[in-house]
Amino acid sequence: MNGAPLRLVVPGWPGSCSQKWLTRIWLRDQVHDGAKMTGTSYRMPRFPVAPGTEVPESDFEIIEAMPVKSLITHPVDGMALSRPALDVRGHAWVGEGKVAQMHISHDFGATWQEAELDEPANPFAWQQWRGHISFPEPGYYEIWAKATDDRGISQPFSIGWNPKGYLNNFYHRIAVTVA
Ligand SMILES: Nc1nc2c(c(=O)[nH]1)N[C@H]1C(S)=C(S)[C@@H](COP(=O)(O)O)O[C@H]1N2
Ligand SMILES: [Mo]
């Protein structure tokens, strides 16, 4: 149901490249013109644009490697803690190369501490990470997670607008309350 008889898996590039239900493969000398692949689909403006800009189709280019990204998988957003310490963990990945460093913050990015980061089990595999946070006093906190790749490129606090809303790799942020 999800790709038989044959599915491409193109790690590191957008999901749209991992085409399903293949019955034949053509090598073509032109850009994909199949259903859902034309126009501005899976494309970004080739230069930064102001929010709401009408970008002509000729100024779009196809998205290739995905930017560095991470997720906090534990704890869930909104967790109420009964003690001032927390084990945090998650995954990180990047379209090309690998994730080199993982940082977490509990003070809105004022300070960052390095988390322990595993090597990928194989090229393109998600990398597991884990860290420990001690909270200075009871109250409301957010945990922010930031991955940095082996070229020194990090997840940003915020991304520039683009017409289709692609490539949003800003920090995953979760809230916790400490009693
Ligand atoms: N034949 C075919 N393959 C396709 C698509 C499609 O519309 N048709 N959508 C693509 C897109 S945009 C994505 S994100 C992934 C989703 O795959 P998943 O169901 O394994 O998450 O399939 C890709 N492969
Ligand atoms: Mo997609």
Task: Specify the structural class.
Answer: mainly beta
* N-to-C CA distance: 47 Å
Helix content, binned percent: under 10%
**CATH secondary-structure class of the largest domain:** Mainly Beta
Quaternary assembly: single chain
Domain Moybdenum cofactor oxidoreductase dimerisation: 62-178
Protein name: Moybdenum cofactor oxidoreductase dimerisation domain-containing protein
GO molecular function: heme binding; molybdenum ion binding; molybdopterin cofactor binding; sulfite oxidase activity
Cofactor: Mo-molybdopterin
Please explain how this structure is put together.
By secondary structure, the protein is mainly beta. It has 2 domains: 1-64, no CATH class; 69-178, Sandwich (Immunoglobulin-like), CATH 2.60.40. 0% of the residues lie in helices and 34% in strands. It contains no helices and 11 strands. The protein has strands at 43-45, 60-62, 69-74, 79-81, 85-93, 99-105, 113-114, 116-117, 127-134, 139-149, 172-178. It has a 5-stranded mixed sheet, with no helix packed on it. Strands 3-5-9-8 form a 4-stranded antiparallel sheet, with no helix packed on it. The protein binds the ligand Nc1nc2c(c(=O)[nH]1)N[C@H]1C(S)=C(S)[C@@H](COP(=O)(O)O)O[C@H]1N2 and molybdenum atom (MO). Residues 2-34 form the Oxidoreductase molybdopterin-binding domain. Keywords: Metal-binding, Molybdenum, Oxidoreductase. One of its GO terms (molecular function) is heme binding. This is Moybdenum cofactor oxidoreductase dimerisation domain-containing protein.
